[in-house]
Automatic annotation (TrEMBL):
One of its GO terms (molecular function) is DNA binding. This is Molybdate-binding protein/DNA-binding XRE family transcriptional regulator. Residues 11-65 form the HTH cro/C1-type domain. InterPro entries: Cro/C1-type_HTH (IPR001387), Lambda_DNA-bd_dom_sf (IPR010982), PBP_domain (IPR024370). Keywords: DNA-binding. It comes from Prosthecobacter vanneervenii.
Length: 356
């Protein structure tokens, strides 16, 4: 394509409108001037982190700057862009736009909700099964067992699709850092350490993020219904076979604190629901999870601590219609009522927004 056919890049147009030179703006965005020059000349598609930095410096959304420059499909250098590695060379996928790029997400079982796949990919050959708008899908990673309820309410209220991938807090934040999800959920804040979620985000991601309160909930120990153990202390002393979460999850951290040491289990489970299934099936005597899962499974529950569940997203994404719809839903009376009716959940601070 000749240079005459290329319109001025939105980054260049906005930079000039603000009266900044390339040298000045490259310092503001924290990137080499040569990279900025290549972006403005349509020769370089920035990484997700670089795109977010540029958008943040200009005070606008990533999509306003790079959507026009995005490839027509989820490819780069001719290769399919998977958000993370698919389990096989051929598989179903969902498609979503994150950070100005279109990504393929391997289909997996999502909590409480089922979305039709968008297509099938065989190696580098994509076959669409249905037409979908990648810009109308919000991607979230976290371990809230009620995420399916959130996705259903979100779709009904906004018309947007929400993909809720089950990941521990540490893994969810890593996906957010990589720029392949819009939102990461974490629940490290407790009554004793209410700033723990913000501290974790600062430590792992840095500043420039928002925390949207989803709920407070009770985390504790799930036991068989007939188990006679009556206290948390007795559990820590008597239980020999725990259903343990993966390192980096808040539930695993809670258990390590209860036992007074970091444990190295032979096997780990990857969700609150998996903990209760392990206890209910009998291969574990107990496990740490949220009250909702334990009660729904008919297990006993001994509360250990109250935690704050926050949804983390980049400040640069706050103007995105999908994020705005999420905030609006969290603050709606109907959604707060539903959250308050879940066992162990407290909705009194749902919808609060803080900056990290």
């Amino acid at each position: 394509m000749s240079r005459a056919k290329n319109p001025e890049h939105p980054v260049a147009a906005l930079r000039k409108a603000r009266g900044w030179s390339q040298e000045e703006f490259s310092k503001m965005a924290g990137m080499p001037r040569s990279s900025l020059s290549a972006i403005e000349a349509w020769r370089l598609t920035p990484s997700v982190s670089a795109a977010l930095a540029v958008a943040r410096a200009l005070g606008c959304r990533v999509e306003e700057l790079f959507e026009a420059a995005a490839s027509p499909g989820p490819r780069q250098g001719g290769q399919v862009l998977w958000a993370w590695k698919a389990t096989s060379g051929a598989g179903r996928y969902w498609e979503a736009e994150v950070g100005g790029r279109k990504w393929l997400f391997p289909v997996e079982t999502l909590p409480g909700v089922s979305w039709a796949h968008d297509g099938i990919c065989h190696g580098e050959v994509m076959k669409e099964s249905r037409r979908s708008d990648a810009s109308k899908t919000l991607v979230m990673a976290g371990c809230d067992p009620a995420a399916g309820l959130l996705a259903a309410e979100y779709a009904a209220a906004s018309g947007f699709r929400m993909l809720t991938f089950t990941r521990g807090g540490g893994a969810a934040l890593e996906l957010l850092r990589q720029g392949v999800v819009h939102v990461a959920a974490l629940h490290r804040s407790t009554e004793e350490r209410p700033e723990r979620n913000a501290e974790t985000v600062l430590e792992r991601l840095g500043s420039g993020y928002r925390l949207l309160r989803s709920a407070e909930w009770q985390e504790g120990i799930a036991l068989p219904a007939a188990d006679a153990i009556s206290s948390v202390t007795a559990c820590a002393q008597q239980v020999r076979q725990w259903a343990m979460r993966e390192p980096g999850s808040a539930a695993r951290e809670c258990l390590d604190e209860l036992l007074g040491q970091a444990t190295v289990p032979e096997h780990v489970v990857l969700s609150h629901q998996a903990v209760v299934e392990a206890v209910r099936s009998g291969w574990a005597e107990a496990g740490v999870c949220v009250r909702l899962c334990a009660e729904d499974a008919g297990l006993r529950f001994l509360p250990v601590r109250r935690e704050s569940l926050d949804l983390c997203f980049a400040v640069a994404m706050e103007g995105d219609p999908r994020i705005r719809a999420l905030i609006q839903l969290m603050r709606s009376r109907e959604h707060r009522r539903l959250i308050g009716e879940l066992p162990g959940y407290d909705e009194r601070n749902t919808g609060e927004l803080v900056t990290v």
